[in-house]
């Protein structure tokens, strides 16, 4: 339960809500090289790394290495999606598997926790939208610069 309280998405949940989530989770052990999930798999569960580490891979390129206290696949808690990466244990690793069904039940039973998580998710969506707007602006600027450098460009 203490580990779940350290996860950003769950940190504002009250003790009883965390307890329900912790008791409904499933602890799993992975060996080095074990695949937790593959890119494009349908996501039904989210995972919290308890110990060890997981490499996230996209198109044969390691994009991140995550360790204890990291929530992997948080969107699976609120919606069925496809995995954007493959996750492979780098070393012997213990994870907690959290189901969407139990997460929803927790939110139904603890509406204050649901409101706090909704606020956290809204903040993340806002942040991602801001970052995407910055990327768009940079790409437009690069496009304008590229056009200006071409012969006959204005």
Structure commentary:
The protein is of the alpha+beta class. Helix content is 42%, strand content 25%. The protein contains four helices and eight strands. The strands form two sheets. Strands 1-8-3-6 form a four-stranded antiparallel beta sheet. Strand 4 (54-58) and strand 5 form a beta hairpin. Helix 2 (15-24) runs antiparallel to helix 3 (100-109). The longest helix is centred in the last third of the chain and has 39 residues, at 111-149. The chain starts with a helix and ends in a 5-residue tail after the last helix. The relative contact order is 0.19.
Quick recap:
The chain is α+β, with helices and mostly antiparallel strands and 154 residues long. Helix content is 42%, strand content 25%.
Class from helix and strand fractions: alpha+beta
- Describe the largest sheet: 4 strands, antiparallel
Which term fits the overall shape? globular
Please indicate the percent range of residues in DSSP E strands (runs of 2 or more): 25-35%
Mean pLDDT: 89
H/E topology pattern: HHEEEEEEEEHH
Q: Helix content range of the residues, please?
A: 40-55%
User: Main sheet: which strands, in order across?
Assistant: 1-8-3-6
- Low-confidence stretches are none
Give me some keywords for this one.
single chain, 154 residues, alpha+beta, four-stranded antiparallel β-sheet, 4 helices, 8 strands, 42% helix
Describe how the helices and strands are arranged.
Layout: H1 2-6, H2 15-24, E1 26-30, E2 35-37, E3 45-51, E4 54-58, E5 61-66, E6 71-72, E7 86-89, E8 93-99, H3 100-109, H4 111-149
Antiparallel strand pairs: 1-8, 2-7, 3-6, 3-8, 4-5, 4-7
């Amino acid at each position: 339960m203490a580990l779940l309280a350290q996860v950003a998405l769950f940190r504002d949940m009250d003790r009883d809500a965390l307890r329900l989530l912790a008791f409904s989770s499933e602890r799993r052990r992975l060996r080095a090289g074990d695949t937790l999930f593959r890119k494009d798999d349908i996501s039904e569960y989210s995972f919290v790394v308890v110990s060890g580490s997981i490499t996230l891979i996209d198109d044969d390129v390691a994009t991140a290495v995550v360790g204890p206290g990291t929530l992997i696949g948080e969107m699976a808690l609120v919606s069925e999606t496809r995995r954007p990466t493959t996750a492979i244990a780098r070393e012997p690793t213990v994870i907690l598997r959290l189901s969407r069904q139990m997460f929803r039940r927790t939110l139904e039973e603890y509406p204050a926790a649901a409101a706090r998580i909704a606020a956290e998710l809204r903040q993340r969506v806002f942040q991602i939208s801001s970052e995407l707007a910055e990327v768009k602006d940079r790409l437009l600027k690069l496009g304008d610069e590229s056009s200006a450098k071409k012969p006959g460009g204005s």
